[in-house]
Every structure is written in structure tokens, then in C-alpha cells.
Design a protein that fits this description.
- The relative contact order is 0.11.
- Helix 17 crosses helix 18.
- The two termini are 35 Å apart.
- The protein folds into 4 domains: 209 residues, no CATH class; 115 residues, paz domain (Beta Complex); 134 residues, Response regulator (Rossmann fold); 182 residues, Ribonuclease H-like superfamily/Ribonuclease H (Nucleotidyltransferase, domain 5).
- The chain contains 20 helices and 39 strands.
- The protein is an alpha+beta fold.
- Belongs to the argonaute family. Ago subfamily.
- It holds the Pfam family ArgoL1.
Length: 843
């Protein structure tokens, strides 16, 4: 039964009691309290506005000519309607969401109206509801009121700033990224209902946009084309130019016009050969070059280039490239940035806490921010301009099982290295894997940056042995190959087949490369689904690094991955998982679940990838197995959750000689309005498939939020970021359900983002303090590193596995496009090979 804070029913046999709150005096598992500032700004209704009402109207816009109405068309029609009759349609009293909704502080006329812009439209305005603003003071603000306020808050920033999704950006606050791209500063805003009431959150944001520049410069600078007057594009260049320009908005400079056009593509021929017909007495057949010379007195310099097709609704509109400019302020897709641009954007976006806080406060106090505007005044709403103050707690770090204890730890345990207790503690260490058979497939062998084989083998073996891995001193074989093999799936298949079907099959195959190659995806697909060979890829620029410290660190990280992939543990909690270890007579299993969606703009045939992972070693809970499924495009519900989880529970039962009594499910990637789906569909599916009734706790982990925690000035440990283990569960959280923010990692760069955890169901009767300690301590057991991570490992692993499924899909699509003999005719993911499906192959 789902937790219901408003009406718990303890007499019901399946009732879930409210989760217990922790002590807030720094007791329990907290070592101290900390004063924090949070980027939440209180929304208040003025005393004289308690009877204020917002009128919600639905607007339907229909063109006389059957055609789709774009968002820009809708905005133009709405503006024209209001401009023709400003007395009855006062624009200063209304906010429009660009779609079907208008919110007004005054009544508007309803009915049907005719509006003409570039064509005729029929506009229907209908009153939907009268929304009372007194609901702002309610602990459960209605969703329609929140929507209305959100649109009203966005009205003022939309007037002068660039709008992209939930964000607003200043066109004059940018840094150049080259290739006609710039990074613009901005902010993201939104509304949340918290314990203190309704608040506006405001967060700093940076996004890449296109700069205003001539199309010819795009070809010269961005595409590195050296244009001359008689320059003509070959077929490959045409495809490249079409891919860059198609869909972009441009302006024209051969005549005075502020209108923006969308590039539909390129003409088949150049301006001399592209012809069209004009009706009328002065009409006839013209080439584009002839028309521009006679109509505008403009001669075309680059006449051998194709023209841009700027037509609309089937009407041709051919304009030479040299008379077109890219309209500024268009969002540049993040996935299309090259490595340099992506790194530059990342550095700009990683604002430290001081700079981020100052930027947020400047925004809320600026004339373009969300806290000002005539419309807000008409509503009788005021928004505070100071951040919310809250007291957080810093949780105690756990003790870990280590191979070498430092002096501080020895002093804490009050022991000497000569004591028998020291020898006992040295034996309480994570288990290391045993590697009798390993091999190297060297893709770098034919390059100038080939692997330094001798030193690599010696150093890697030494590093693994230091970490408790029993490994043979030399590989079974070193097979030289080349990077070209990664580009040829059929050759790669043959090479891997020799490795997998040989007399001595390696437990792990190490694959040095000189760079991250597209063939990496095919390698993983073949090894993990076809041959069942565990692989570990590495880059020779790191393995051959002359900086001994950096090379040693890189090899240490490789050692962590190899040990975990082959069944070893890198870090375990000395006293076990909090709360769970105290219930020694009960078996607990941890499950993580996530869905990876295709990038925006991908076609509907690209599937979403669902992943479920489960712990299989109790009580350490450090080893996980995974299951992956493809499902329909951008579907968030994990449609086979019950089947995947059932497989993992059965594996757990075989390994631990018994079924788990308790299951803790961590779900990643769902929004607040999808919590019902998790409980009513995914959890129900699991219960139906399990065949027995363990106690289940369901916890959602959210990283895609914009709440930020800042230490008060003069407080804290001296670091500008909050310390690891900082938890906040009052004031800025949702009072209707158990939830808290936890910053479990050490923020070394940028501003630490806490993870927002929501407990949706708790059959195990945990207290909130117990849940917080459990999650924080688990963050120290992530196999890829030796420091605590920002996200509880079960969902961290699920995220990695879901991405691995995306790697498989992209490899399949690449095989199909290349016409390989290995191509697959469907989008279903292949089943993991039985030899690796129960290992941590995905690390």
C-alpha cells in the first residue's frame, strides 16, 4: 500500500506507516548541524489580494488554408488580435503560453474572431475557469493554479530574453566557442510547493546558441570550405551543407525585412540553372540569377552554389546563400558540439558556489527576472529576493574495509600494528578476484602511439596484486591488431572469434586503443552478446603517460574495474549497510532501475532502453547483476520490470541459498507526476511476477532538479561547497511525502548538486534517519572509485547499464547502415551472453 500522510490506516493489514523523522538537534547519525542557504524564493499573496482571481481562457487558432500552425504563428496571431482591440484585450494584463492557454487578471471577450497576419485565421476564445489565488496559501496548491502562475512568471523574462525550454538567456552575455557558436549566460526558474509554502526556484544556466552570421561564413569557417566565385559543391559537400543548414532560421539582406525563414533544404541546381515561373503580364520563366539582377539590382557572386529553399506550405522561395544570414539566438544541439566546444561549455557552466549564488541573486533582483512585472502586481503577488535559510545535518562517514589502515584509523581503534587485532582487521578486507587467464588485443600496435607492452604488463600486475587480485604474471597472449579493424565489423568479428574460440579462453581481454573509436560500440556488442568475453578498454595516451603519478592513478582505476568485473569487491562497509546489518536474521536485496531515452530529435523507431540491476551478495551488497530490455520510443514506464526483477531475485536466491525477505527498490529518472506510475504499474507488475510477498521499500532518486545548497558565509569547513553527507529534510522539502536532499559526494569543481530522494513505499518500517544513513553509506561502495559518489549505487549502476544498452543499439544501427554481414533487421536488443550476464560487465 502506498504511503498516505494525510490518512494512514494502521488497522489495514497492508498499511504502510509514515516514515519516522530523524532527530534535528544533530543527534543520531549526524556529527553536526550546518546553516545553509537554498535558491528558493518565497511567493506571498498580499493582504489586499485575498479575493484575487485569474481568468483562464482557451484559445483555438485555425487557418483558413489547411495547414499546421507553428508556435511563432500562434504568437503572431495572438498579438495581432490584442493589437486590434487593446481596450477589450489588454496585453499588459494577460500571459500566453504560446499554445492554447491565456491567463488574465481581467475578463476578456469570448467568441469567434477573424485575424489576418500573412494569411487569415479564425480565433476562438473560451473561458475555462476562474482560479482563486487564495489557493497559494494552501499546502496542496492545485495544479491548474501552479500552471497559471508559472505562465505569468515567464511573461516578463520572455519579453527581452532568449527562451529555450525552461531557461532564459541574455543575448549580450556570451563567450565565443568558435564555429559561429557562443555560450550564453541565463537562468532556469520554476515553482515548487514546500514546507514553507509556495516558492520560486531560480538556478544559473549556460547554453550554446548560434551567433548571427552570414551563411557564406558558415561554409567557410564552420565547414572549412575555401569558396571562390566559381566554386561548386560535390555530392559529399552538398550533403554536409544540407545537414548543417536544414531547419535553421535565417534572415535575408537583399531587401528590408525582419521576417525569419526556415531553411527547407538546397536547390538541386545552382542559381544559373534553378528556374521558376511568375504568372501575370510581367511574368515568365526566370533563373534565380536573372530574377535577382532585374528585381533587386543584385548580381550573384557565388553563382555556382545551390540556393536555399525558404519556401513554406509548398510554395517555392529560392534565395542565394550570399543573401542569407543565420538568425542569432538559435539553440545549438549539445550533442553536435565537438570535443573542444563541449569542454569549453562545461568549464563555463561549472560555476563555483560563490559565483553561482551571486548570479542567482542578481537574476532575482534584475528587471528581467521572475520576481518583477506589472502582471504580478495586478495579481497581488510578491516574491522574496533573499534565499531561504535552512539548517542541515552532516552525517557521520562510514568506516570501510581497507587493505591498509592509515594512522588516524589506527588511533581511532586504539590499536598498534603489532597487535593481534591489527592482523584480524587486515583480514577483514574486500575480496579480490582471481585471474588465471588474461590476454591483450592491442588495437594500437600499428600506430606511433602503440602500447608500451612490457611496462604496462608489469605495472598493471603490480597494481592489481596490491589491491588483492590474484593474477598470473603474464598474459596468455598479446595479439597485435590495428585501429582499422574497429572500423570493419566483419574483420572485428573474425578477430574476436579467434580469441573467444581459442584453446585458452581468457577471463578478461584488455583492449588498448589510441583514441575512443566508434568501433568501441561494436566491440562491446559482440563481446557481451555474441562471444561472452569480458573486455577492458584503455587508452595508450594514459597507459604510456610519462607523468608517473597520473599513470599510476590510471592503472589503479583500471584495477578497480577489472577486479569488480571479475567478481571482486573494491570497498565494503566495515559494519555493514546501516539498519540492514542490524537485522542479521533477514536477507535484504537492493534493486536499481532506470530508462535511457533516445536524444531529442531522433526518429520514433529509436527505442528507449530499460535497465534493472540487483545486488547478489548478501550482506556486503557490493556485487550486482543486470538485465536490459528495449521498449517503445521515449516510454518511461519499465514495461518488463517484473520479469527483469524476477530473474535477478532468482539469481539472488541461488547465490544466497534463500529468497530475500526484504527488497529495497531505487528508481531513477521519474518526475513527481510519475510516482503513481511507479507504484501502480511497475511495483504491481513485480508483485505479480515474484510469486511470494517480501517486504518492499520504494525510493525514487532525482538528479534533474534545480535546488542548490550553499553554506552561509563564514560557516562550514572552509570549502565553498557543502561537505559530503549534508542532508536537508525540512523547510525546502515537500511536506506531503517523506523526502530529503542528500549531498553525498565531495564537490571539487562547480557547485555540488544534491540528490533528491523520495520514499514512496516503506513496508520495512524504516525511520528517515535510517534511510539517510543507509543511502549515504552505500555511496561509499561504488565500484568505479574510492570516494563517495553523488548517487546511490543501485541507480548509478542502472544508469550505466541503460547506457550500455544504448551502445548496443547504436552498434546495431551502424552494422545495418554499413551493410555488414552481421547486421540485424530489428531494434530488439540481443540477449546478454550467459557467461557474463551475472557479472558487472558494464563497469
Amino acid at each position: 500500500m502506498r504511503f498516505s500522510p494525510s490518512s494512514p490506516n494502521p488497522t489495514h493489514p497492508n498499511a504502510t506507516m509514515p516514515i519516522r523523522r530523524p532527530n534535528h538537534d544533530g543527534g543520531g547519525s549526524a556529527i553536526r548541524t550546518i546553516k545553509l542557504l537554498v535558491n528558493h524564493f518565497r511567493v506571498r499573496l498580499n493582504n489586499n489580494a485575498t479575493d484575487a482571481v485569474i481568468f483562464h481562457y482557451e484559445i483555438a487558432i485555425t487557418p483558413d488554408i489547411k495547414a499546421q500552425v507553428s508556435k511563432s504563428d500562434s504568437l503572431s496571431v495572438k498579438r495581432q488580435l490584442f493589437a486590434t482591440d487593446p481596450t477589450r484585450f489588454p496585453s499588459q494584463s494577460t500571459a500566453y503560453d504560446g499554445d492554447k492557454n491565456i491567463f488574465s487578471t481581467v475578463p476578456l471577450p469570448t467568441g469567434t474572431f477573424r485575424v489576418r497576419t500573412r494569411q487569415d485565421y479564425v480565433v476562438t476564445v473560451r473561458l475555462q475557469a476562474e482560479l482563486s489565488l487564495s489557493a497559494i496559501a494552501s499546502p496542496h496548491v492545485p495544479r491548474n493554479v501552479l500552471h497559471a502562475l508559472d505562465v505569468i512568471l515567464r511573461e516578463k523574462p520572455s519579453e527581452n530574453l532568449l527562451v529555450a525550454g525552461r531557461g532564459f538567456y541574455w543575448a549580450d552575455l556570451g563567450q565565443d566557442l568558435r564555429r559561429g557558436i557562443q555560450a550564453l549566460d541565463g537562468f532556469i526558474q520554476g515553482l515548487r510547493v514546500t514546507e514553507q509554502g509556495l516558492v520560486v526556484y531560480v538556478d544559473y544556466s549556460v547554453m550554446a546558441f548560434r551567433k548571427k552570421m552570414p551563411v557564406i561564413e558558415v561554409l567557410q569557417d564552420t565547414l572549412q570550405m575555401r569558396l571562390r566565385e566559381n566554386y561548386a559543391l560535390n555530392m559529399q559537400q552538398r550533403a554536409l551543407v544540407d545537414g548543417v543548414l536544414r531547419g535553421l532560421r535565417v534572415t535575408v539582406n537583399h531587401r528590408k525585412s525582419a521576417q525569419k525563414y526556415v531553411v527547407q533544404g538546397l536547390t538541386t541546381h545552382d542559381s544559373d540553372s534553378t528556374k521558376f515561373t511568375i504568372d501575370g503580364p510581367d511574368g515568365g520563366s526566370f533563373s534565380v540569377r536573372e530574377y535577382f539582377r532585374s528585381k533587386y539590382g543584385q548580381d550573384i557572386r557565388y553563382r555556382k552554389l545551390p540556393c536555399l529553399d525558404l519556401g513554406k506550405r509548398g510554395r517555392a522561395n529560392y534565395v542565394p546563400m550570399e543573401f542569407c544570414e543565420i538568425a542569432g539566438g538559435q539553440r545549438f544541439p549539445k550533442q553536435n558540439l565537438n570535443k573542444y566546444e563541449a569542454n569549453q561549455l562545461r568549464e563555463i557552466a561549472l560555476a563555483d558556489p560563490i559565483r553561482r549564488k551571486e548570479s542567482i541573486l542578481r537574476t532575482v533582483r534584475s528587471g528581467d527576472g521572475p520576481c518583477v512585472g506589472e502582471l504580478l502586481s495586478q495579481c497581488g503577488i510578491s516574491i522574496g529576493t533573499s534565499m531561504t535559510e535552512v539548517t542541515g545535518r552532516v552525517l557521520q562517514r562510514p568506516e570501510l574495509k581497507l587493505r591498509a589502515y592509515n594512522n588516524d584509523q589506527l588511533q581511532r581503534y586504539n590499536i598498534n600494528r603489532d597487535d593481534a587485532q591489527w592482523n584480524l582487521m587486515r583480514n577483514k578486507v574486500p575480496s579480490g578476484a582471481r585471474i588465471d587467464r588474461w590476454a591483450i588485443l592491442d588495437f594500437s600496435a600499428a600506430t606511433a602511439h602503440r602500447l608500451n607492452q612490457r611496462s604496462f604488463v608489469q605495472d598493471l600486475v603490480s597494481k592489481l596484486r596490491d589491491n588483492g587480485v590474484q593474477i598470473s604474471p603474464s598474459p596468455l597472449f598479446v595479439m597485435p591488431s590495428s585501429m582499422d579493424v574497429l572500423s570493419d565489423p566483419d574483420r572485428l568479428y573474425q578477430v574476436l572469434g579467434q580469441v573467444a574460440r581459442g584453446a585458452q579462453r581468457p577471463q578478461i581481454l584488455i583492449c588498448p586503443m589510441v583514441e575512443r573509436h566508434d568501433g568501441y560500440n561494436t566491440l562491446k556488442l559482440l563481446c557481451e552478446t555474441e562471444f561472452g568475453v569480458m573486455t577492458q578498454c584503455c587508452l595508450t595516451q594514459h597507459t604510456n603517460n610519462p607523468n608517473l603519478k597520473r599513470r599510476d592513478q590510471y592503472l589503479a582505476n583500471l584495477g578497480l574495474l577489472i577486479n569488480a568485473k571479475l567478481g571482486g569487491s573494491n570497498a565494503e562497509l566495515f559494519e555493514g549497510v546501516p539498519t540492514l546489518a542490524a537485522r542479521a536474521n533477514e536477507r535484504f536485496m537492493l534493486i536499481g532501475a532506470d530508462v535511457n531515452h533516445p536524444s531529442s530529435g531522433s526518429d520514433n523507431s529509436s527505442p528507449s532502453i530499460a535497465a534493472v540491476v540487483g545486488s547478489i551478495n548478501w550482506p556486503a551488497s557490493t556485487r550486482y547483476a543486470a538485465r536490459i530490455r528495449a521498449q517503445p520510443h521515449r516510454t518511461e514506464e519499465i514495461q518488463e520490470f517484473g520479469d527483469m526483477a524476477r530473474e535477478l531475485v532468482e539469481l539472488y536466491a541461488r547465490v544466497n541459498k534463500g529468497w530475500p525477505h526484504n527488497i529495497i527498490i531505487f528508481r531513477d529518472g521519474v518526475a513527481d507526476n510519475q510516482f503513481e506510475m511507479v507504484i501502480d504499474k511497475e511495483l504491481r507488475d513485480l508483485k505479480e511476477k515474484l510469486g511470494y510477498s517480501p517486504k518492499i521499500t520504494v525510493i525514487v532518486a532525482q538528479k534533474r532538479h534545480h535546488t542548490r545548497l550553499f553554506p552561509e558565509e563564514g560557516r562550514g569547513s572552509g570549502s565553498p561547497n557543502v561537505p559530503p553527507g549534508t542532508v536537508v529534510d525540512t523547510v525546502v522539502v515537500d511536506k506531503t511525502k517523506p523526502n530529503f536532499y542528500l549531498c553525498s559526494h565531495q564537490g571539487l569543481i562547480g557547485t555540488s548538486k544534491p540528490t533528491h530522494y523520495h520514499v514512496l513505499l516503506d513496508d520495512n518500517g524504516f525511520g528517515k534517519d535510517e534511510v539517510q544513513r543507509m543511502i549515504y553509506h552505500l555511496c561509499f561502495t561504488f565500484a568505479r572509485c574510492t570516494k563517495p559518489v553523488s548517487l546511490v549505487p543501485p541507480v548509478f549502476y542502472a544508469d550505466i547499464v541503460a547506457y550500455r544498452g544504448r551502445v548496443y543499439h547504436e552498434a546495431q544501427m551502424r552494422l545495418n547502415s554499413q551493410g555488414s554481414n552481421l547486421r540485424s533487421g530489428n531494434v530488439c536488443l540481443p540477449k546478454l551472453h550467459k557467461d557474463i550476464e551475472n557479472s558487472m560487465f558494464f563497469l
